[in-house]
Amino acid sequence: MKRECLRQNYSVKDIQNYLQIGAYQSIYAWFNGKSLPSLDNMFALSRLLGKSVEELIVCQDEVRYADRDRWIFGCPSRERVLAYCNFLFGEPA
């Protein structure tokens, strides 16, 4: 998410204004993997950046697909990303 925002030249202030968030610290926490945006904010970010929600939360360089199962390796917040993916796709945690 951070990489894509920087690539498209969106500052934290731009994102804060777009999402109408009072505190910019939340965005820094997202960028640093300390928390994830709410589902509505994640969806809004995906629209702003022209990327799917999955592309924003999953370390794309580290994803391996085997049939319909998804495996995520190397993300700093791997457990949190896995739990979030499980929530999104309805899989057990």
Structure description:
It is a single chain. By secondary structure, the chain is mainly α. 53% of the residues lie in helices and 9% in strands. It is built from 6 helices and 2 strands; from the N terminus they run αααααββα. The protein has helices at residues 2-7, 12-19, 25-31, 39-49, 53-57, 78-89; strands at 63-66, 69-72. It has a two-stranded antiparallel sheet with strand order 1-2. β1 and β2 (69-72) form a beta hairpin. The protein is globular, with a radius of gyration of 13 Å. The two termini are 23 Å apart. Mean pLDDT is 77; it is low at 60-72.
User: In whole angstroms, how far apart are the ends?
Assistant: 23 Å
Average pLDDT, all residues: 77
Q: Give the strand tally.
A: 2
What's the total helix number? 6
| SSE ordering | HHHHHEEH
- Structural class, from helix and strand content? mainly alpha
How would you sum up the global shape?
Answer: globular
- Strand order across the largest sheet: 1-2
Largest sheet: 2 strands, antiparallel
Helix content: 40-55%
What is the radius of gyration computed over CA atoms, rounded to a whole number of angstroms? 13 Å
Low-confidence stretches: 60-72
What amount of the residues lies in strands? 5-15%
